[in-house]
Amino acid sequence: MEPLKLVAVSAGLREPSSTRLLADRLAEATRARLAGEREAEVRVVELRGLAVDIANNLVTGFPGAALREAVEAVTAADGLIAVSPIFTASYSGLFKSFFDVIENTALTGKPVLIAATGGTARHSLALEHALRPMFAYLRAVVAPTAVYAATEDWGSGGDGSTGGLAGRIERAAGELADLVLGRYGAGPAGDPFEDVVPFEQQLAALRP
């Protein structure tokens, strides 16, 4: 059985980047959650090095070789982790531009974990009013838990195990792993509405 493909997209602009660090932590946590059942290969796509190719693609409609390879990796992934820094209360322009060059049906049904980094926790709702609606429009299947990491979440030592961040990473990774394995929210087999009494029968039972 071939390994599952996990791809993490990081839109961090600096080196080192907290956005890349969060992408790495989420990818490793998801790989670890899958390890008991399926082997998974992880690839990180850093958009920083593709910025010129993305701009050229938006203008010309033709991707360069490096951008084409990145897009193919994302669209072929069994699970996608998408991480953006938050600028002006939303995802970065580079992050949005990358997904703009992908066909708008290419992510249909794909399990996606969304995450973001920022200087203050006040911008955490950008995950819900910006990233989640974008992937909903692309018809991806977005994990319920979104992960936001503010500067203080990393702790003074710079590790990702302080505060509540580690717990959020583990919860989100578990949800993505379940989505990739096709078992998230699985209930008993059969039609859950099979035994529902039709409304007309319920009304008839109320008549004297």
Automatic annotation (TrEMBL):
Enzyme nomenclature, EC number: 1.5.1.-
InterPro entries from the UniProt entry: CE1759_FMN_reduct, Flavoprotein-like_sf, FMN_Rdtase-like_dom, NAD(P)H-dep_FMN_reductase
Protein name according to UniProt: FMN reductase
Residue ranges of every copy of the NADPH-dependent FMN reductase-like domain listed in the record: 5-154
Matching NCBIfam families: LLM_duo_CE1759
UniProt keyword annotation of Oxidoreductase present: yes
Entry keyword set: Flavoprotein, FMN, Oxidoreductase
Superkingdom in the source lineage: Bacteria
One annotated GO molecular function: oxidoreductase activity
